[in-house]
DNA sequence: ACGAAAAAGGAAACCGGTGTCAAAACGATT
DNA sequence: AATCGTTTTGACACCGGTTTCCTTTTTCGT
């Protein structure tokens, strides 16, 4: 009775509405076998009391928590944080909460750790960010544990309902088109680490476009990095040395592109005067570096929202995989190739 | 009996060990009034079965979840993410999980939203990141709701056990000492937004050191930003215009310092040749920008870990406020002032 | 108007733990 | 051996929901 502080329970609602708790439960769960009048009566009481079902109790009864998990091993802070924001967009005003779990994909115990985590926390579902979203054993683990999951990826990795992706390949092709149109012929690539689907997609986009334009891609015009700044420096040093004569360069992410800036600067190569650079991600560094970097932006926040909705309300966002369009953001790191060949 | 898949419960343990579930509960909770023999017997069964208490059930019974919340409205992704890692360090191998909740401190509903969130999720405790860690109403709300909390801050804001802080002021003083030692006399300040304790601390450190060296700080040598890149550009433009003749500049965070780089570049001012710049935070951009930026690094991950420990195990990390030392990271954005005055 | 089927609602058990309080076991004393 | 005061332990209710199963009510065909 004295309810200062402690929130009303389903029993309070039932008593005041003059029905059984099961009926209240039915209202909460939108059971279809309820008379409209009853529903309204109960809903009125719920509204009056400001009743919210206790997630802990539901979690216990349903053997399933109202928690969405974000599993990631992501080198890029901004990406992860944007993703978190997107998930929050989806669960705002619901009883769901977001729990985060950074993992170490190089640890041999990763799967075991995650299994433990899932077993203990009994999450409603998990969101898998690249690169671990590409781990098939992990997806299988989720299935085994009866835990919903959605993989973020840049290509088809799974059946329909578990996937949210972007069109990396196409947009990289258009990046190359853009460079070629400006007159570039010798274009270099800093690709991402093997094992990353996104890296493969972007590389394929690059190769396809070059081929379409009848341009060669010599060995020396390609270098591999690991998506981190330092590896970008190193890769660019390789690309820029000797006689390659590259006039433009596409890096598979912004951090490596920033590394390329660094390498160019050390070598006294002007950007974009002597070398045009395009990155990928549109992370803050792209806007903050000098000159501001032309890069590819993908709608991570929207993708995250969609992924979360797939988990908590499969009806709304559907069983089909969702593909979100990335787009080129032109700033000042691209120009025509230098006149003297 | 058939326990494929579903994990064992306290009942299984009790039955097999031949004791009551309450006794098992006592073992789990390290109750001191247990006979050693009983404890061992039960623990053996627990180990054999690989039993883990179900957090949902405990949450229901205790009216308190095993969830730590991270409340933030932070402009810096890397800071937030590092903080998350630190919390994870603390709760690894415990039953705790970390839930994140970005908030909007400019929203008039913020407190109401948070109240709702706390009421529904019944968190074990929350970690408050700057700037909302400085909101006293919020701290009071936590107390009201019976929710543990720890504030991250750069100065005393609360009583002892609720605080983890850094020594911003001192370290900024040492930054200025360093610049003065190199020969700088006209040093500019880009300060952070009003309302941020950290901004005030850093400003005071700056002013104290300048005063100690007998150096003036004219109006025109100070500009205010909001901790974001663009505001850094703007502030630096103000500082660098006309006749100020500043030879060095301290920005209250790295993003604004990066903005100052940008402004300098646009004006054709060489860094560090004509202008030395020091930032604060040691965020990735400091290492990636050109030239690599001298900045202040503070041990956010350790601070986060300490904060989390304060919540989940007040015994271990103690009731006293913890202060963690920040330190200067010297890179290439600082040099002696230009010879021609 | 009647009986049968369908719809609506309720009682009680259950999810897996913890709290309360009384009972049992134990040790020391007499 | 009986008594008493501590430890230890257990029975049972409870946390706030859901599920199962059964009863009551409504609807409808004939």
Task: List descriptors.
homodimer, 341 residues, Rossmann fold, 14 helices, 45% helix, DNA-binding
CATH top-level class of the largest domain in chain A: Alpha Beta
The number of helical runs of chain A is: 14
Mean pLDDT of chain A: 90
Largest interface, with counts of residues having CB < 8 Å to the other chain, equals: A-B, 44 and 44 residues
- How would the global form of chain A be characterised? elongated
Quickly give the CATH architecture of the largest domain in chain A. 3-Layer(aba) Sandwich
Q: Work out the helicity level of chain A.
A: 40-55%
The CATH topology of the largest domain in chain A corresponds to: Rossmann fold
Largest sheet of chain A, order of strands side by side?
Answer: 2-1-3-4-5-11
The CATH homologous superfamily of the largest domain in chain A is called Response regulator
Report the major sheet of chain A. 6 strands, parallel
Distance between the termini of chain A: 86 Å
Q: Uncertain spans of chain A, ≥5 residues at pLDDT below 50? A: none
Strand content of chain A: 5-15%
H/E series of chain A, N to C?
A: HHHHEHEHEHEEHEHEHEHEHEHHEE
Rg estimate of chain A, integer Å: 25 Å
Number of domains of chain A: 3
Say what oligomer this is.
Answer: homodimer
Keywords (chains A, B): DNA-binding, Transcription, Transcription regulation
Domain HTH lacI-type (chains A, B): 8-62
Protein name (chains A, B): LacI family DNA-binding transcriptional regulator
Pfam family, one (chains A, B): LacI
């Amino acid at each position: 009775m004295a309810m200062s502080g402690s929130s009303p329970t389903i029993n309070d609602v039932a008593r005041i509405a003059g029905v059984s708790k099961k009926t209240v439960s039915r209202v909460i769960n939108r059971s279809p076998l309820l008379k409209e009048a009853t529903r309204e009566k109960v809903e009125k009481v719920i509204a009056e009391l400001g009743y919210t079902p206790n997630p802990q109790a539901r979690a216990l009864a349903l053997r399933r928590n109202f928690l969405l998990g974000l599993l990631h091993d992501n080198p890029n802070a901004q990406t992860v944080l944007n993703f978190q924001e997107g998930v929050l967009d989806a669960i705002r005003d619901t009883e769901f909460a977001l729990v985060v779990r950074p993992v170490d994909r190089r640890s041999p115990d990763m799967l075991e750790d995650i299994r433990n985590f899932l077993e203990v926390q009994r999450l409603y579902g998990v969101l898998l960010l690249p690169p671990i979203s590409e781990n098939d054993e992990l997806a299988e683990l989720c299935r085994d544990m009866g835990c919903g999951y959605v993989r973020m990826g840049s290509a088809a990795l799974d059946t329909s309902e578990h996937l949210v992706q972007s069109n990396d390949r196409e947009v990289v092709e258009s990046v190359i088109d853009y460079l070629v149109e400006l007159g570039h012929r010798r274009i270099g690539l800093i690709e991402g680490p093997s094992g990353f689907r996104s890296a493969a997609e972007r590389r394929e986009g690059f190769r396809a476009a070059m081929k379409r334009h009848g341009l060669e891609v010599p060995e020396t015009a390609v270098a591999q990095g690991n998506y981190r700044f330092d590896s970008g420096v190193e890769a660019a040093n390789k690309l820029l040395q000797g006689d390659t004569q590259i006039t433009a360069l596409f890096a598979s992410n912004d951090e490596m592109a920033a590394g390329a800036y660094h390498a160019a600067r050390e070598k006294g190569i002007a950007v974009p005067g002597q070398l045009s650079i395009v990155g990928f991600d549109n992370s803050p560094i792209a806007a903050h570096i000098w000159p501001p970097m032309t890069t590819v932006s993908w709608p991570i926040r929207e993708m995250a929202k969609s992924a979360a909705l797939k988990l908590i309300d499969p009806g709304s966002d559907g069983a089909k995989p969702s593909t979100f369009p990335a787009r080129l953001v032109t700033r000042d790191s691209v120009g025509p190739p230098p006149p003297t060949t």
